[in-house]
Amino acid sequence: MIIREYKPSDCKSLAELFYNTVHSVNIKDYTETQLNAWATGNVDLVEWNKSFSEHYTVVAVKKDIIVGFGDIDRNGYLDRLYVHKDYQHQGIATAICNELENHIDSEIITVNASITAKPFFEKRRYMTIREQKIERKGITLINYLMEKK
Questions:
Q1: Cα torsion at 6, 47, 129, 127 (round to 10°)?
Q2: How many domains does one find in the chain?
Q3: Is residue 133 part of a domain?
Q4: What is the pLDDT of residues 36-77, one digit of tens each?
Q5: What does pTM read for this prediction?
């Protein structure tokens, strides 16, 4: 596996990976209605590309297949971290997260972690600041503001 920097040509593949991962991996913690509100399948690729380009964004690739991605902003906010549904539990999220955390020069890293991702971040010594109820398309989802010092 290689971890490389994001290229705009990756954007569509990352949007598809995001949708498929949310709808298959997060199904154990969220209802179908919540998943449909979270990942609609209609990502604004222009906005995502802009966000990826403004953040430090990396892509994990195995045998020419994008198997994960993550991004972090200059202030230490870890925005997205997703691993392909068929490549879970292979150390990919750890490798991406290591790269993101090591790249940023912030004393505190924060993340809004899903119920599904919370145990992953706890193992990385992130502390839960608070449970949050967020609304997407009129549907309430729970996530956790977490930080690592």
A1: -10
A2: 1
A3: no
A4: 999 999 999 999 999 999 999 999 999 999 999 999 999 999
A5: 0.95
Q: Could you list the residue range(s) of the whole structural domain that residue 37 is in?
A: 2-105
What does residue 123 show for φ and ψ, rounded to 5 degrees? Answer: -65, -25
Is 10 in contact with 66 (CB distance < 8 Å)? yes
pLDDT digits (tens, 9 = 90+) for 72-131: 999 999 999 999 999 999 999 999 999 999 999 889 999 999 999 999 999 999 999 999
Establish how many alpha carbons lie within 13 A of residue 47's alpha carbon, considering only the half-sphere containing its beta carbon: 3
Q: What's the rounded Cα separation, in Å, for the pair 126 and 56?
A: 20
Residue 112 falls within a domain, yes or no? no
List Cβ neighbours of 131 (8 Å cut-off, separation of 6 or more). Answer: 142, 143, 144
Tokens of 100: 């993101």
Q: Which two tokens stand for residue 108?
A: 């505190």
In whole angstroms, give the CA distance from residue 36 to residue 53: 26
CATH number at 34 reads 3.40.630.30
